[in-house]
Amino acid sequence: MRISLKNIVSTCMITTLIFPLFPFATTEAEDITRKKLEEHLQEKENVLNKIAEQDKKLQSFVDQINETNLKIKEIQKQAAPIELRLTNAEKELKVYDQILRKRVRFFYEHGQFNYTSQLLEADSFGQFLYKLETLRLIIKQDTTLIRERQEVVQKIKQEKSKYDLLVTQQNEQIKKSKEAYNKIVQEAQKDKKNLDVLEAFEELHEDDFSQINLEDWKNGKLRFPYDGPMKRPSNGALTSEWGYRNHPIYKRPILHQGADFGGGTGSPIFAAGDGVVVSSGPSSGYGWLITIYHGEKNGKHVFTRYAHSYPNQVKVRAGERVKAGEHIADVGANGNVTGPHLHFEVRYGNGEKPPSSNPRKWMSI
Ligand SMILES: [Zn+2]
């Protein structure tokens, strides 16, 4: 990447050398790049918004599918005893049918005569009536039982088919949700590819973008809202708080403008938030000082500063956009220090020297 940038730079220089009579060529080229940068940032924001929107949609689908799955489980739980009741009822019915069949066969084989003769063998008309009534009751009882049995079975069957229908409907709903989910996943993949292309373009034109950002910063044009809270800039332990402390040399309380983090030489320093590096260079006392602009909050500028790295440990330069958590430098012992550490400051305000603010107000340390 760097090699190709050098190529671009040298091509530009050659162009300038060959065509020195075109005084507006550089300005025009710059305008095009600026326009491209703006378009690029807009496009990137659109894609990022779209991806965020898709993520939200996907999450809601996942929630929906999970909810439906739970409902189906609940329905199946309710359907299980119904199925059992149905099976038992069918078994009982079978047993009952067998008994009935036997009885019918008995009547058929000896029944009519035997039965008639039994009736005829009655000693009296009273006994005859009694026998007849008994027989009638047995038959009536049998038919009633059969009917009732069938009614129960029918009822359970109906109940079961209602549950089956419900499960089928829910399954259809799940299928539809999954289809919609897959469609969004496909779209999201497309947009993620677009984002890759945009980021590749950004990387290729990193130097141009940095230059424009820096110019905009100097002209007061670089403005965006602060997007907090911040992230811890180091994995090292907090060794000194922001606030007044007795200075070992001056023997009086002096405001410590930042928070110090240990961790040893070479441990990584991270950007506390999204922003643009507005300066990165040697600074007396600080050794090396990186300043990141994080945007505006309530009409005031928010900055963070990172001190004491050695020049070869610094990974960013002025004008570069950085993301929260991005590795921007390593811990060194450059400047006015007794040992290696990160001196980290939050500056909040307007003008040349905005006052320092307790980092604890901006992040959990
Ligand atoms: Zn410090």
UniProtKB/TrEMBL annotation:
Needed co-factor(s): Zn(2+)
GO molecular function: metal ion binding; metalloendopeptidase activity
UniProt xrefs under SUPFAM superfamilies: Duplicated hybrid motif
Key word rRNA-binding present: no
GO BP, one annotated term: proteolysis
Boundaries of every M23ase beta-sheet core domain copy: 256-350
Domain annotation Peptidoglycan hydrolase PcsB coiled-coil: ranges: 89-158
Coiled-coil residue spans: 34-92
Signal peptide span: 1-25
Pfam families: CC_PcsB (PF24568), Peptidase_M23 (PF01551)
Keywords: Coiled coil, Hydrolase, Metal-binding, Metalloprotease, Protease, Signal, Zinc
PANTHER family in the cross-refs: CELL DIVISION PROTEIN YTFB, PEPTIDASE-RELATED
Protein name: Peptidoglycan DD-metalloendopeptidase family protein
